[in-house]
Design brief:
The protein is mainly α and 239 residues long. The protein has two domains: 40 residues, no CATH class; 158 residues. Helices cover 49% and strands 11% of the residues.
Length: 239
């Protein structure tokens, strides 16, 4: 078909539709099953990019500072996410430690970095190398990021520890709370909508480069202003 790029198939019922351009924050839904086909991205790239940068900074704060500080019988100890992973590894729970690391560190970090890798060049009108693979990687790791589950577990643990020790929240606890809210907003952005933006960028004609005049050769203005009696220089051809 000549116009396959103007068609879209529903990922739920496989019905084929024509794909009109959406304006603003409009949403296209399948009239057969009601599934969301795609959303408009006009005006959202700037806000999603800014929110992703803020989420990445908050993620680094949450990873680098203690979550809570426990005090009992005059003994004080601080707990961080990295310390919890080390404790799980030392307790011969390597599989659990790897799962927690992937769900709370590796996959969320991969999604944030990959989003910025795509969004920043696209906002500037360029298609980054490996766009297709990076976009598929985002769709793969997104369901495995479980910061909100980890945050819920931390809150339950704090409630249980209050009766045993004095619990003082640290910077990472608030950072994880803010990160949970930020990721909830970032997840609402469907990266598949970037296909339309990239298609428009690829369809634009490449800008013409200005030819620089070589030393000893007149520019276009000089050639245009040369009297008719003066012949233009002839560039010799080889072969």
């Amino acid at each position: 078909m000549e116009h396959d790029h103007h068609l879209i198939a529903c990922h739920e019922c496989d019905t084929l539709f024509r794909k009109p351009r959406l304006s603003g924050r409009a949403t296209a839904r399948c009239p057969r099953c009601g599934a969301t086909l795609y959303r408009g991205v006009s005006g959202r790239l700037d806000s999603i990019t800014a929110l992703t940068v803020a989420a990445l900074i908050t993620f680094l704060i949450a990873q680098g500072f203690p979550i809570v500080e426990l005090e009992t019988n005059g003994i004080t100890s601080q707990t961080s996410l990295f310390g919890a992973l080390v404790a799980l590894w030392d307790e011969n729970m390597q599989i659990v430690a790897v799962i927690v690391f992937c769900a709370t560190t590796l996959f969320p970090l991969t999604e944030l970095v990959a989003l910025l890798y795509i969004l920043i060049p696209v906002r500037r009108g360029h298609v980054p190398p490996g766009f297709n693979r990076v976009l598929r990687a985002i769709q793969f790791v997104r369901p495995w990021g479980m910061i909100e589950v980890f945050m819920l577990g931390v809150l339950v643990t704090i409630v249980k520890m209050v009766s045993l020790a004095r619990v003082m929240p640290e910077a990472a606890l608030f950072a994880f709370g803010a990160l949970t809210l930020m990721l909830a907003v970032v997840v609402t952005f469907d990266p598949r909508t970037l296909w339309d933006v990239v298609d428009d960028l690829r369809a634009r004609p490449a800008p013409r480069r200005k030819q620089k005049a070589h030393p000893g050769q007149p520019g276009r203005a000089a050639v245009a202003n040369r009297p008719a009696s003066a012949p233009a220089p002839v560039t010799p051809r080889q072969g």
